[in-house]
Amino acid sequence: MLNLALAMLFFVGIHFLISGTSLRDRLVAYRGEQAFRAAFSVLSLLALGWVVFAYRQAPYVETWGQLTGFKPIAAVLMLVSFIFVVAGLTTPNPTAVSGESVLNDAEAARGILRITRHPFLWGLSLWALVHVIANGDVAALLLFGSLLALCLAGTRSIDAKRRRTYGDRWERFAAATSNVPFMAIKEGRNRLELGEIGWQRLGIAVALYLAMLHFHAKIFGVSPLF
């Protein structure tokens, strides 16, 4: 369990202390954007490999235990998570790497961005939260709880980085959307347009979700339904 705790500390630490901080800005100024991205990607992949290895080796130490009654709720939440992740990865977004050109659009906050400007990270947050609740053990709490904290903090870190870099262009975009899902719609700064998300994106999300339901037990040894 110590190995997993150290792996998560390293993985989360490199994101909190480097990505989105002023240290990142200095490293980019020193070595260039592309060199920084390449080096950080390699470091992140190495850290992720350590995390996966440590999690697979960690013993099962029960906290509240596996909650069978939560599985129907988890199944619904995971569908929402898949939609957010797929739409987030396929929708042009100025919060994404090399997505800053979207800030030049007259109406940049469209589709899933009307709901949140961080759909991918909110999708991952929901995925992590579901697994924290459903697994009910210390290893899952360390892994998924840390990822949940990282994703939620990451939304604020990205906002701060984009604000420093793009100034008024970013502020115009941020005013038309929100970090917290549906907040901009609730406050009247945007409107819900489900059709803009795209039926193709929804179809891909549902297909991947159904594949997850089918293969989850074979890959991870636990059925998400029973």
UniProtKB/TrEMBL annotation:
The keyword Signal does not apply. The keyword Secreted does not apply. It is found in: Membrane. Its main location: membrane. It is a multi-pass membrane protein. Keywords: Membrane, Transmembrane, Transmembrane helix. InterPro entries: NnrU_dom. Pfam families: NnrU (PF07298). GO terms for cellular component: membrane. This is NnrU domain-containing protein. It comes from Methylococcus capsulatus (strain ATCC 33009 / NCIMB 11132 / Bath).
